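Changelog-adjacent note: as of this version, every example in the card shows the full chain rather than a window. The one below runs 499 residues end to end.
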Amino acid sequence: MTTKLSFTLFLTLIVLLLPSSPEARRLPFLSKPSHPQNNIVSDNYTYQIRYFQQTLDHFSFHHLPTFPQRYLINTDHWLGPSPMAPIFLYCGNEGDIEWFALNTGFVWELAPLFGAMVIFPEHRYYGESMPYGSRDEAYKNASTLAYLTAEQALADYAVLITDLKRNLSAEACPVVLFGGSYGGMLAAWMRVKYPHIAIGALASSAPILQFDDIVPLDTFYNIVSNDFRRESTSCFDTIKKSWDVITSVGRKANGLDRLAKTFHLCGKLKSSDDLFNWLESAYSYLAMVDYPYPSEFLMPLPAYPIKEVCKKIDESAEGTNVLDRIFNGVSVYYNYTGQADCFDLDDDPHGMSGWDWQACTEMVMPMSSNKNSSMFPEWDYNYTSYAVDCWNEFGVIPRPTWITTEFGGHDYKSVFKNFGSNIIFSNGLLDPWSGGGVVENISDSVVALVTKKGAHHLDLRAATADDPDWLVDQRASEVKLIKGWIDNYYTTKKGVFNM
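Full-length structure tokens:
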């Protein structure tokens, strides 16, 4: 079965799963949607940008200023409140919501098939959703950053969707949550914390177990390493060897200058540790987005970018020193288009500095590296050192056990089995975050969909004619489960439109 045929069969399967009612079949799957004048059309996705005056602190009655929470909304395909047509809400991540929306094609593609409204609320303190009037004021100190938490973000989504449904007389319309990575964690947690708000959640690449010593600390870097070793043992060995070479060169006279020149850095190299972090980030991100087709999710990259990195490292092996080979490899990640003349190690290309605050408060994900099983230098997680860094940066002490206290994690199988329902945990085993994800079915309605060749929330990306069969099958399984949630919801209502 070819991939193009599989893509066609996927669409056929969706049509077969559609509601049988004549009213429900008015789905403009192939028709031209109407676009109000204030709609934005970007990458074939149409939406309006709106703002909601959001409460800064949902958990006290102390008077605090509100802030404008940005959200994207599309109602082109929504069948309205009378048939209780569904609402699909994506739980915004740690960044600009438009960036996430344009990289979550699966939700947009499902909307006309289910007659659904689509909403992408932005996470507080990211993008344009800034308390205190500006990013500078919001990030000013620990006092102003104090309201940047997962709990507050989930409350934002709950308040926003409740108010929106009330204004549209759509209180009875079922809400399905979607999210990838941190957004996937939020989707799963929201389904558990606010079961009256949403009937189900698709949590893609959601490492909800990467806390409080639930999984082995070296899992993440072992998976990254195995991704590279799977492509080329010699590539793996070269990367493993490079750390000692970098350390040795950096200790020599003018060694840091030599490293800066070799890796085409824009400025001076302060220490070899900065170079370590730059390279480690590249390898980790490459493992996350080792997609089977070209993408621009994090950086412009070719299909199967790890294969291309290792090809560069291995092809330049003969007569070329280790550092030049490593630079040739990581250039696939940092400079695939060839447009960069030099690299600034202080530049954050993903703009996620707010995550530093979250990681220093409640999102404490302990990790370590084992030199015997990974290609990275060995290091152990040291909470004391971690806490000192957070104190120096923000004046706060991390709470490493708070997330598991608030949302659970230990003994998660029995908890979800007894108290959870309607959650899909999807993971690709190439993704290093899958090591902290749920990869086994817990019950009939808390399901794990696992793909061996999948990467970071690949299933949430837009479908293409080049999608491999296993990805097409995974999305079809997700659609079937989501339809089951909605069907079951309708059957529990009296005198309602029956799908």
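Structural remarks: The longest helix spans residues 469-491.
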